[in-house]
Design goal:
transferase activity, two-stranded antiparallel sheet, mainly alpha, 9 helices, membrane, 5% strand
Length: 266
């Protein structure tokens, strides 16, 4: 199956070019902002429109800065040691979800201090919309024909133009779009629609993303300069995602054990 050739430039106005990948980031942030504004408008939400706008801005910085630093440290530390200024060469590509996640967790801490809220009041409010950005980003990867999967003879396997081997591969970007974007969003959005113990929603995000990413890693081609880390199957993506499952599950158990709300629901 041939890869559908899609111009990576979505909009071109003279010298100004807007790429699909950047547009996907914008869709993720705007979509998340709109849904959080809607939830902030519910009675007793504890949030205002201005606070939501600040939250989205801080999260955007966390994603970009954390994502870049994480990619450099987790996936290409050797190149950073050779050329430390490469850390700032964002235009060359290279972003890590796990680094972006750490950046977002730090942004939550800053916002909690700024608004005088408990940490998980911020995190549990925000994480249900994070999959929108994840799904949009993975679709952007697909449009760019990057981060493709392992060789496959499945009927839907595709030949990506950027693949020097020219073999049919799993469109693993679409697998991630579906699991990390659509499925994870629905699970978190529905689960968080009712009051939950502090930290439970954030913990569920860790479990859900960790399981989705670990599963897809069995179909995704490892980074060429890293390859498999052990046993011919373990990848860096798995190594960083499996702890999310364990920590997330522990957070959920802790949240329900220490739920001190006067009225416990569902």
């Amino acid at each position: 199956m041939e890869f559908p050739q899609i111009d990576p430039v979505a909009i071109a106005l003279g010298p100004l070019q807007v790429h699909w990948y950047g547009l996907m980031y914008l869709i993720g942030f705007v979509g998340g902002w709109c849904l959080l504004i809607w939830r902030a408008g519910r009675p007793d939400s504890g949030w205002t429109r201005d606070q939501v706008s600040d939250l989205v801005f801080y999260v955007a910085l966390g994603v970009i800065l954390g994502g870049r630093v994480g990619y450099v440290l987790f996936y290409n530390f050797g190149k950073f040691l050779d050329d430390p200024l490469w850390l700032f060469a964002i235009w060359t590509g290279g972003m890590s979800f796990h680094g972006g996640a750490l950046g977002v967790l730090f942004a939550f801490w800053l916002l909690a201090r700024k608004f005088g809220k408990r940490y998980f009041s911020v995190a549990d409010f925000a994480v249900p919309v994070v999959p929108i950005g994840l799904g949009a980003g993975r679709f952007g990867n697909f449009i760019n024909g990057e981060l493709w999967g392992r060789p496959s003879d499945a009927p839907w396997a595709m030949v990506f133009p950027s693949d020097p081997m020219g073999v049919a591969r799993h469109p693993s970007q679409l697998y991630e779009f579906f699991l990390e974007g659509i499925v994870l969003f629905l699970v978190l959005w529905l689960y968080s629609a009712r009051p939950r113990p502090a930290g439970a929603v954030t913990g569920l995000f860790g479990v859900g993303y960790g399981l989705s990413r670990t599963f897809v890693e069995f179909f995704r081609e490892p980074d060429a300069h890293l390859g498999y880390l052990a046993g011919g199957w373990l990848t860096m993506g798995m190594l960083l995602s499996i702890p999310m499952i364990v920590i997330g599950a522990a957070m959920i158990a802790w949240a329900y054990k220490h739920d001190d709300r006067p009225l416990k629901r569902g």
